[in-house]
Design goal:
Helices cover 72% and strands 0% of the residues.
Length: 296
């Protein structure tokens, strides 16, 4: 308990320091200023515009200091987060660029935890969760309370079949950073695990919390549409599906076939190991069909 309280204070203080430093006026911005401003933008609830802002700021930092490992790593993370947030198609050059940046960063500084986290994100987007898991565990070996690594490790656990291990990781993240600007992601994670387990009431509870925390994430809206449909609430399901389509950066929610081809949470054409794919088929896709999503 003492460790968790201390970690919670550290996480909250880190967010405040980044925001304060990023707002500091300066007449001659240099690479570090752009990095801090990019970090401040990245720490806000994600949206397409904010992701684009962060990428522009990190790009500027890298122009000023092409050898900056942090600028390379932060830019790679911003590029992959635009993919995982379903704000751009995974097949774009973003992932390739992120991969190149991380190779440069790790070649220069092979022990930097943030670079390993970014490599894990690239592997995740590539649909290689087993390898990504090793990178996130490397980060947690240095900092066992690394919030983002906990969250992404949960995704890897889910996609590789260890569903029962996912919710405890999300709950730990919530305890460590209860006012985190990206708290919606943890609520969403619990909600979709409960949906896969066919606990629709619990799923709706957590997914509604996620929607309230960040109403701009299309994936949350689509999963909530499925949960409502499975609970025989067709009007609410149709409304959420329409909103998911509006918010999405592509046409993945136009049909089940397109959604399957797009993959899950940024991983192109990947829905986990066979038993996990079967769970998605029996719950998530079944609900979306009931919500009105056509097959083709």
């Amino acid at each position: 308990m003492q460790d968790e309280v201390t970690s919670r204070i550290a996480v909250a203080l880190n967010l405040e320091l980044i925001a304060a430093e990023a707002s500091r006026p300066t007449e001659l911005p240099h690479a570090l200023d752009y990095i801090l401003r990019g970090r401040a933008v990245s720490n806000r609830p994600p949206s397409r515009d904010l992701r684009n802002q962060a990428i522009s700021l990190f790009e500027r930092a890298l122009e000023l200091d092409p050898r900056s490992v942090e600028a390379q790593t932060r830019l790679a993370l911003a590029l992959t987060s635009r993919v995982t947030g379903e704000m751009i198609d995974p097949a774009t050059s973003d992932v390739t660029r992120a991969e190149e940046l991380i190779e440069q960063a790790l070649a220069a500084s092979p022990r930097v935890p943030l670079a390993h986290f970014a490599k894990g994100m690239v592997l995740r987007v590539r649909g290689r969760p087993e390898e990504a898991m090793l990178e996130f565990e490397t980060v947690l070996a240095v900092d066992r309370n690394a919030i983002d690594a906990l969250f992404q490790l949960g995704w890897c656990k889910a996609m590789t079949g260890s569903i029962d291990e996912v919710i405890p990781l999300a709950e730990k993240g919530i305890r460590l950073s209860p006012r985190d600007p990206r708290i919606a992601n943890f609520y969403w994670r619990i909600g979709w695990v409960r949906l896969l387990q066919s606990h629709e009431d619990d799923a709706v509870l957590w997914l509604e919390k996620a929607r309230s925390a960040n109403p701009r994430l299309s994936a949350i809206r689509a999963m909530l549409a499925s949960a409502y449909a499975l609970k025989s609430e067709p009007e609410r399901a149709a409304a959420e599906l329409a909103e998911a389509r509006r918010l999405s950066g592509d046409d993945r929610y136009s049909s089940v076939a397109r959604l399957k081809a797009a993959g899950y949470a940024g991983s192109h054409d990947y829905w986990g190991v066979p038993k996990v794919r079967a769970l998605f088929e029996a719950t998530y896709f079944a609900g979306l069909r009931k919500a009105g999503m056509p097959e083709e």
